[in-house]
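User: tokens in, sequence out, please.
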């Protein structure tokens, strides 16, 4: 993604490593333990630190903006974030 990006990139709905225990507990509670195990037991779900994106994307991106996921009524929103990265040529700096 980074190499192919000419102006910037967005990585959306990233599972927040800082919220991992709460996110897993909430999902288990919502679905029920049996349904959760049936659906997710064989899957490996990745969680990321916000700082990891800054470490990986700065440079080559001049600005890395990380914001909380805000979607009303979306169950996972409190446990996700979005990353927006911009190359220097895309930044408008006021005179």
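Assistant: Sequence out:
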């Amino acid at each position: 993604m980074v190499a192919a990006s000419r102006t910037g990139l967005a990585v959306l709905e990233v599972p927040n490593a800082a919220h991992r225990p709460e996110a897993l507990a909430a999902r288990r509670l919502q679905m029920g333990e049996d349904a959760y195990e049936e659906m997710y037991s064989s899957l490996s779900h990745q969680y990321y630190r916000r700082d990891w994106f800054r470490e990986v994307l700065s440079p080559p991106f001049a600005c890395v903006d990380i914001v909380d996921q805000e979607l009303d009524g979306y169950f996972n929103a409190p446990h996700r974030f979005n990353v927006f990265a911009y190359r220097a040529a895309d930044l408008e700096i006021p005179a």
